[in-house]
Amino acid sequence: MDIVKLNHRGPVVVLLQRALTRAGIFYDANDGIFGPKTFKAVQTFQRDFGLTSDGIVGPRTWKALKPLLDRTRRYRIKSGDTPASVAAKYGLTDKELLAANPDSAFISGETIIVPDTGSVISSDLAYSHSVMLADISALRIRYPFLGHGTIGKSARKRDIPVLRFGRGPVRIFYNAAHHANEYITTPVLLRFVEELSSSAVNARRFFKMDARRLRGAISLFLVPMVNPDGADLVTGALQANTEAYRYAESIRGDAPFPLGWKANIRGVDLNNNYPALFEEGYEAKTELGINFPGPRDYTGPKALSEPESSAMARLTREISPDMTIALHTQGREIYYRFNGTEPPNALRIGEAMVASTALYTLADPPGPSYGGYKDWFIQDFRKPGFTIELGSGQNPLPVSEFDSVCRESAPMLAAGISQML
Ligand SMILES: [Zn+2]
């Protein structure tokens, strides 16, 4: 989690204020501005927890805040309690309560975790890296069977997490937010795995599939935020007085700043940085005058020059997926071809995704495509790889679009899975 202190602004400050509000020591608007009242509340919280009350929210304070961020409470089991009776008291199903306490014997005197009801994915916040980390933590408490790891670090040394649903033989890899101002794809992907996991726990069907059995049929890997530094820049989590922010601003060009930013924090467009006709892409961009770092479209000096793209390539080689989808925004199109190397079943899977929503079309990107993640995956693995351009509007799509983007993407992501079974 980012260290935050007096005068900081942004989505992480909102998270902090929500936690302090929940603790009952902050009564002001959760406005994302770390002012004197937030400072005082942090000091109070720190004093209560025996921490140095300096008003700076660093690793120790974040750790103490964790149960508040996780949106859980503790409950001491009394004699006569059953999983169903305790779950009912808090609006959960007994299966949900037990899922969050996989090691519990459910005996009197034992303390268990009771999660809040409802989704844990923040649908009303600019989705920065720390917001994602907080939501992943909350998600893993509810669904401890989700595998979790880190594929590497971004240029600013932020962890790039990976989640895994299931242990089955069919290997599927979904990723999101290669592009900074497409960060809405991160919570969209997390909401998808949340609903899938909830269906599995409650033994419900998930888009006509038996969600519980899916855990034995597929291994679904998810990298929800390929480009954390870029997302932090666009969401306002990266403070304006940092060197990284000032560098980005110095190479902003004509693009709106920071909202027009797509690249990583070093000014390389990660979805032009993969080794798929990379040289051709580099030359084509050079002819357009895009051969130096900037907010979008720069390929980088060589393929996989960036820590984020090389971590993605390493993970992809390691898991060797049978199919991949990279989520982008916007335009409601699905790209499935690359230079004639796509396998025959790509069209069938693409058509099934299109049929699942009736809002999207199979297409080719506007202009030649080089160096994209799906390009590289199709070329090197000869397996179906897709880019889906979610939603419609201008990037970054506003958080108010979140629910509608979720509604139209979930059937396609589910169709991708069912076509592989
Ligand atoms: Zn994109």
Q: Tell me, what's the shape?
A: globular
Bound molecules: zinc ion
**The number of domains:** 3
- The computed structural class is alpha/beta
- The count of β-strands is 12
Q: Please, how many helices?
A: 15
CATH superfamily of the largest domain: Zn peptidases
The residue ranges in which pLDDT falls below 50 over 5 or more consecutive positions are none
CATH topology of the largest domain: Aminopeptidase
Q: Residue-averaged pLDDT, rounded?
A: 96
Q: What would you call the quaternary organization?
A: single chain
Q: Note the beta-strand portion.
A: 5-15%
Rg for CA atoms: 22 Å
Largest beta sheet: strand ordering: 3-4-8-5-9-12-10-11
Helix content: 25-40%
Structural description of this entry:
The protein is globular and about 70 Å long. The mean pLDDT is 96. The strands form 3 sheets. An 8-stranded mixed β-sheet has the order 3-4-8-5-9-12-10-11, sandwiched between helices. A two-stranded antiparallel ribbon has the order 1-2. The protein is 39% helix and 14% strand. The chain has helices spanning 11-22, 36-48, 59-70, 83-89, 94-99, 129-142, 185-201, 211-217, 228-235, 243-250, 278-287, 307-319, 345-357, 373-381, 402-418; strands at residues 72-76, 111-115, 147-153, 159-165, 170-176, 205-206, 209-210, 218-223, 323-329, 333-335, 361-363, 385-390. Helix 7 (185-201) packs across helix 8. The protein starts with 10 loop residues before the first helix and ends with a helix. The chain is built from 15 helices and 12 strands. With 421 residues, it is of the alpha/beta class. A hairpin with a 5-residue loop joins strand 3 and strand 4 (159-165). It has 3 domains: 1-70, Orthogonal Bundle (Muramoyl-pentapeptide Carboxypeptidase, domain 1); 72-115, Membrane-bound Lytic Murein Transglycosylase D, Chain A, CATH 3.10.350.10; 119-421, Zn peptidases (Aminopeptidase, 3-Layer(aba) Sandwich). Bound molecules: zinc ion. Residues 178-179, 182, 271, 328 line the site of zinc ion.
